[in-house]
Amino acid sequence: MCILHPPFRLANANDASRLAALVNFAGDGLPLYLWQKRAKPGEDPWQIGRDRQAEKATDGTVVVMDDGDGAVASLTGYVIGAGPEPIDPGLSALLRPLLELENMALNSWYVNVLACYPARRGAGIGTGLLDIAEQLARAAGLGRMSVIVADDNTGARRLYERHGFKFAASAPCAKQDWDAATKEWQLMIRTLSPRGS
Question: Looking at the domain that runs over 8-191, which CATH code has it been given?
Fold first, then answer.
């Protein structure tokens, strides 16, 4: 982990509610759809999301931006290794293309979630979190970063393009009964220049 300076910090379990909302922003509603699918009768799908984010925060794998009023943006990511991950034959058609694209981004630091509350967008918070992601990638000895965006999320795609990410591959979005405008997922890769260049 890199050294974080305020207003950035590691998330903790108390951030779970905001993190669940941020993850859902980043996923254009897909996370809530998946939580609804997993919820038992009478179970709050948002609680599933909060529990999942509390667990991730406890692992020390989530960075948030907090300027004193709680987390307003978050970054979650991880290293994709040198070999492709096996994909469970029973995995839903909705999630399969996402894992197939991840398997095309070997030896990269994968930006799994980069999200900001809508009222705080456009203030450079995403840039600050991407700078932290780059530090994490370099600390892991990786020469590239990766992210998957929905084709209809032009704001996110423009942000990544401004930071050197380029289109690498796409896969169709098998929406099933998920109500979204997304037609395809797009893998974007950024090659990191050597330090000092």
Answer: 3.40.630.30
